[in-house]
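Practice problem: tRNA(Ile)-lysidine synthetase
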Amino acid sequence: ARRHRLGLEEAGRELRYRLLEAAADRLGCARIVLGHTADDNLETMLMNICRGAGLRGVAGIPVRRGRVVRPLIDVERADIIRYLRARDLDWVEDESNADLGFRRNLVRLQIVPLLKQLNPAAVVNARRCAALLAAEDEFLGMQAEEALRAVVEFRRGRALIDTRKLRQYNLSLRRRIVRLLWPELDAEGVARVLNFAAQAGPGRSATGCVDLKRRNGIVEAVIRKKGKTRQRTCRGTDF
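Answer key — structure tokens:
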């Protein structure tokens, strides 16, 4: 975690998924089935809201991503426990789940119970909200893909962004176009790219993630090859 500048929870999550993917490759598995529940999804939504996430983050945990599927995402944790107890089935509880030093546990053990006091259907309602947001995100994603083709011309490992055409799109789609080009950029980095593109006259900018040159209404940008960009989010502080 320290080597990659990740929090302990985030590092553990990345390692778990990496191990699962490696095991699936080794065993020839077409699907990786995980047991995330509607409660897990609410916790994720709340944590993402607190860190200022966009639509995709607020939508919570996706039902499917690649070969990872989550068939229990619409089921509350309490219902699963009742099912197991009714059939005298045991389950394993991670000892760290009681440690309030981890942010997710703080949300799970202290914040979610308060929300349930406000509305006993908080978990179910949050899952409904997540499904609506995920559908909106999917639609905007398709619109952004179409806008990208209209605004950006790819030539010899570079992207030529027509700033006049870019300005014709809603800010939400402009942000998504930039994210399609550089998924590793955070919100601040995306804003700096758009600010650079909106300026008049020639100019240059370079960061660890993005190299830009602006001239005659065109922003020429380097398209990094896979594996060449930083693993961590690039903030683009020198735009």
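Discussion: Residues 31-139 form a domain with the Rossmann fold fold (CATH 3.40.50.620). Students who identified this feature from the tokens alone can consider the problem solved.
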